[in-house]
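Holo prediction — tryptophan.
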Amino acid sequence: MRTEHAPTIHRADYAPLAWTVARIDLHFALAPQATVVTSRLACVRNPDAAPGPIVLDGEELETLALTVDGLDPAPGTVRRTESRIEIDVADRDEVALEIVTRINPQANTALSGLYLSRGGYFTQCEAEGFRRITWFPDRPDVMARFTVTLEGDKAACPVLLSNGNLVEEGELPDGRHYARWEDPFPKPCYLFALVAADLVALERRELTASGREVLLQVWVEKGNLDRAGHAMESLVHAMRWDEETFGLELDLDRFMIVAVSDFNMGAMENKGLNIFNAKYVLAKPDTATDVDYEHIESVVAHEYFHNWTGNRVTCRDWFQLTLKEGLTVFRDQQFSADMLACAAGAEGGSSARAVKRIDDVRVLRSAQFPEDAGPMAHPIRPESYQEINNFYTATVYEKGAEVIRMLHTLLGPEGFRNGMDLYFSYHDGQAVTCDDFVNAMAEANGRDLDQFMRWYGQAGTPRLRAQGEWNGADGSYTLTLSQSTQPTPGQPDKLPLVIPVAVGLIGPDGADLPLQLEGEHQPGATTRVLELATETRQWRFTNLAAEPAPSLLRGFSAPVILELDEDDGRLAFRMAHDSDACNRWDAAQRYAERVLLQLAADAAAGRALKVPAPFIDAFGKLLRNELLDPAFRAQALALPGEAYLLERMEPADPAALRAAQLHVGAELGRVLAADWLALAESLVEPGEYRYHPADAGGRALVNLALRYLCAARVDAGVALAAARFDSATNMTDRFGALAALMHGAVPAAEAALAAFYRRYQNDTLVLDKWFALQAGAWRRDAAAAPVLAQVRELLADPAFSPSNPNKVYALLGSFFRANPGEFHLADGSGYEFWAEQVIALDAANPQVAARMARALENWRRFTPALQAAIRPQLERVLAADGLSPDVTEIVEKALAA
Ligand code: TRP
Ligand code: ZN
């Protein structure tokens, strides 16, 4: 464990290294507690850098030997600290280093570097894990050609994998064997990987667009082969999509995906050897929900797409992380939308795409907006950090993808593709910056994107204020758009950004009006993209027969908060008519938000709660509209998330909000019970389960109906949920019914929960759902034991393990981050528990601990009483012995706010 205080690293301090590495030849003698790593480095002087020593990074390494050109280094030429070696080399431009280190995979609980999981060896090197394996200039602008030899026990690790091509394998004495791998592409060390474990592979051979045969493998534990098929299908779809959409082909003869049970994040794009959290690989109908299937498809695609956006062209330094992550998230979002549209066919394509877009917007609003408004707010390209692992954030990923999407909107699909082509033609094989990417886009399109670059440097969610003025005398409508961004930590002044605003005008009959801007001769399209690049600007639409209702930011065309005064009637009108599915959903969200926040204020003030009848009416109309596809209705009828609502509440009062949510949910269930029941009964899919987006939409809507019915404790609904739980043939139905019963806290819930546990007690991934459901439970009866008590009890369940990140995220993550109504207890006991758990986790795995720590970073937004209870717990964590840089950075920034 690192205990020293992490220094702050600044983007402006980037300088190339005096020496880089052209080739590395690695040898691993694998043993659980003493793996010996021999590394031969061909170091070369960097002609573009100022002269200096060879600099190597290391962490938790036991150094056994170091030679320079085969000799002990000359006295005084080597300086060594815990984490750094500097070697002076005079009068040569090439040097061969040989370094032998010993590491202890078994003691590696941080899951960064080389570690053990269920008896197998796995690596995770992004961002700075390679230095925990051997001494190396551990930064992405050092790209070397890797050769790797693995030597291990044949019985424990029959499978030995690394990046690239297998060039040799054979037997060794004492029951050991070896394999040698060569990666033909130079790569930064964060893309290095090895796996040595007892696994089996699902295999497939495919031809690439240019006719090369490639071997695809999905490696899983024995007994899980029947769950690997969907990941393989997804991989093949991703390959085809990248060929068709961007002309990008797989460049290796072999591409492997490996599932591992203990993993800090979702998955990792190591060259030719992607390593995945098992949760994003394994699926069969009995154990995975439709949503799990969707996630697997998108994560498999995401990692695959990194092969070009990340690996072939990589990042110069970690400040450029969004160069690969924002772009790759955008690519996986487009891929998923295309897959959904393709499955829905000609008729449902646009609705299916909108459903995916709505999903993405939900994530952005609930995870990224709060981040951008809190002490961790940072631009998609940060200016500084203490611990890079803390910057794998919703901002870098999701807002980063929104920034790429805006380029796509501004340049059009063809212009964007031309920019991508130019980017690869210039930078293939290089480690580059976000400027290089945007410059390629600008050059390919003959467009000045200098002001657009501000999106990379400015933190905070811009507010887009819209005002419309109708002039009945001349049939014109003047739209005024203005922008402003609140100060964020370290960034008091904000400049205007380039904001593409997709606009439509809806006529009184609900149909879109053709748009004609002042000075144009003819009305044109019904949706147009306006570009706001100054603080404020006006547009005048002419030739309108009647006053329109504006529909702004269609498709969520920019990551901003839209402020537009619309009364309840206008929101209900757009809920019923907006032709842009995303905005139609948004109208419903805005209306629901208004109702929920009003009721929360009433609850806080001790007033009676009453849901306005017009809201229920508008909601019921969507529910009964069979012209809308079920997946869209499931989105439109789901209330805004708690995290997003808390962000909109001043001050945030989780208990009051929870009271409002409970009341609104129950009322929507009670008043619309007949409709929900009719829906649930009509939408049941006949026949055997298959994962298909069209069926998934129906299942999602039925499960939502059950949820409302159980919330209202409608007898027929509860009975239906219980029956569906008992008769379910797949996890989506079974878990949906169980979740509904739990949500209603009805008597049948307890038995169902126990039955679920019995059925899946040996299935660790499914048990994560069981933990998450209980930690995320909503108490309906104030006299019942708090969920906190249940969470504490579950920590002692034999199926729980604090060393398994998935378990921690399922139990503690679901409680701290996804259940504010129960976590923020007035007596502060939730916060005490939080501090205790963060400190305990941090001693073993700082990355996981830091993620849990972030649950309280926005503590300044809460009521004064809650803040008073939170502060001492933040201070307690900060005072803990040997606190990691990861958690230190989070808590220091929170306290400084
Ligand atoms: N690059 C990975 C991705 O596809 C992210 C990742 C996986 C990661 N494991 C990690 C980042 C561990 C930091 C630490 O998005
Ligand atoms: Zn990624």
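READOUT: The first strand starts at residue 9 and ends at 10.
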